[in-house]
Every structure is written in C-alpha cells, then in structure tokens.
Amino acid sequence: xESNAQKLDQLKNLLLVEDRDTIAQLExxxxxxxxxxxxxxxxxxxxxxxxxxxxxxFTTSIPExxxxxxxxxxxxxxxxxxxxxxxALYPIIGKLIKKYISQEIKILSxxxxxxxxxxxxxxxxxxxxxxxxxxxxxxxxALTELTKPLIAQLFVIExxxxxxxxxxxxxxNVDTDLVAGMLTAIKSFVEDxxxxxxxxxxxxxxxxxxxxxxxxxxxxxxxxxxGNFNTQFKNKLENNLLDFAEVNFKNSxxxxxxxxxxLEKIINNE
Amino acid sequence: MNKATKKIVLVGCFGVGKSSLIRxxxxxxxxxxxxxxxxxxxxxxxxxxxxxxxxxIIWDVEGNENIQDLRTSYLTGTSGFLYVxxxxxxxxxxxxxxxxxxxxxxxxxxxxxxxANKADLIxxxxxxxxxxxxxxxLDFYTSAKxxxxxxxxxxxxxxxxx
Lengths: 270, 162
Prior knowledge:
A: alpha+beta, B: about 30% strand
C-alpha cells in the first residue's frame, strides 16, 4: 500500500511538471548570466555599447547642462581669488611684457639707425658733431634725445602733516591729497628708520618714474620725473625749485594759486 | 563757505577697531576680517561743519600699546586725534590718561576725542561703570559694526577745530 508521502509525490509530479521545466530553464539562464558576469570579455560585449552610448550623450549634454554653472563658478572664483590669480599670472605676464619691450626696443633702435643714416637736418649735424668730439655714438645720442626727462607732476607739501599746499601736473589722474600724504609717510618712515642726524630722503624710484624730493624748512617739493633723470636735468630742476622757494616761501607763504602758476611755469619750461 | 584741509590721526592699541571706524565713516562698510595695519594707511573724506568744508586727511596708524613708541613723524602736524579704546578689553585703556597727557603736551594745538569702540558687544551702562571705576571719561561710545555714533566722532572733531 502506497504511503501518503508517495501519493503526494505522484500528485506533485502530475501537477508541477511545467513549473519544474521553468525552474530548470531559469537555472540555465542564471548559470549563463553568472558566466557572463564573471568573464570580463563576455560582459564587456554587452555593457560596452551601453557605456559608449551614455558617454556620447553625456559629452554632448555637458556643455548645455553644466556650462552655465561652471562658467558662473569660475567667474565667482576669479572675483574671490583675484590676488591668487594675479600671483599666478604675474610671472607669465612679466615674461610677455619683457619680450614685448625687447621687440619694441629693437624697432626703436632700427628707427634710430635709419634716422641717423638718412637725415641731414641741423640737429643731426649737431649730433654728428657731438658724437665726433665726445666719442658717444650717434645712436646713443639719438636715444638720449628720445628719452629726454619730463616733469610729470609737482607737489608742494607741508612737512610733518603731509598736507598738500599746491600742485601742478599734465594729467589729473591721481588723488593728489593722498599722494602727498603717502609721500610724507614714506619720507618720514625712511628718515626715522634709516637716516641719521639731519639727512633727508631725496629720491624715490618708482617703475618708470623718479620722484625727486627737495627739502625746505617748513615744506618740501616732490617732482615726479619721467624719462632719463640725469644730473644735468637734476641741477636745472634744483635751481628752478630754489628760485620757486625764494619767491614763495620767503617771509610769509604765497597763496596756493600763485604757487600753482609758478609750478606750471616750471613744468612748461622744461 | 570756508575750506580747510586737516590731518586727523587715529591712535590706540592693536585691534581696537581704528581701521574699521575709518572704513565705516568713509565707505560705510564693515568686515569681520581683521587685517593688522602695518605702518600707516591714509584716506580722505570731506565733511561740512556749519560754514566750513573740512577735507579730512585721515591717517590710520598701526596700533601700539605705548603711544610714545609711535613714530613722531606720523603724528607731527596733526589737527585732531581720535584716541580709540576697545570697551571690552581693559588692557586697551589702562594707559589712556597718560597717553592723553602725552598727546596734549606734544601737540598742544591738536584737538582730542576719546572713543570707546565695540559698543555692540557691551552695554553702555556696563562700560561706563568700568571706565568710572578706573577714573576714565570717554567722549563717545561707538560701534564700527553697527555704525553707531561713528559719523558723530568725526563731526565732533570738526566742531572742536572750528
């Protein structure tokens, strides 16, 4: 007599035959998938096309979707880190400027050569004559003429307080009160820190400019000079400033308007 | 209208807020970032007091615990001093009376205004009580952060100089 268990098995065989087939198929599929996943080559055959497609979409959509955000972030970064950016760019810009200046000097030199060889003017004759007697080349003399010193600005400043009394300049592009104050602060610092007894700061060199300082009792005059600030020019300037002081600082101080007129004369006569 | 250019110097210990007071007065801004002043910074502002236009050349000198250690050349020719202390730090006002005596002796023509800054961090009553205890009398309680009384100290100096 068949036991209940055997009967149940027979019943299962009858009822679940399709399920068994399905399970067997699933097992086969899972095994195949396992093999694909575990073998890189087999997996890449299926996955690579999908990744390639996604990368292509990603590459084309990045500029559209992230572009504005990246631009905005970079702009903000530039604004917030200006000093760092300048620090990083400074050497590169410096080299470019240096290269540019070298090129410009070469062009200038060529022009001078050309001028020296071609022109028969009175100034050229004078230059040839000077070159003959002094031994200085005509090119150097022509270059000196081109880099002739010019007074860019004149300031009359009260000693100590640094208050600007009068000034004259070709261009009004600086805050003259602040320049007067800062010049006084620099002058005071240098005189306190480095100079002994009654010596005074007399010259500041700033990039392409020389700042000549002439001291008087209550005031000092600062002259901003561009070009080649040579001894001859310095002597002439000192004489002019002494004359100015004699007229304007003697006894009682002149009115600022009178000083400005006299300063303009000095600037325009140079 | 009369016009006059005057040199104003702010003196006081490190970190009392001299530069912040100037920034608030001239540019109406305040920053929590503390940058120590090295040497001197100069800035200017015009104000009108009654019938006079003052062109204030304001010298913001580096902080120093002993005023006599400051470069005298920075102080020469000053028309008005703002002596600034930090109302919350006692060590910034322990020498105040001696410093004021020194300024009055060395620069007898200069006007002086005594300012207790950072009033936003302490009540005026509390600060006054501390100063009274030390025998000190301040002219103004200011806050560079909120702007309280900042303009008033410069205008008061202008009035004193008239």
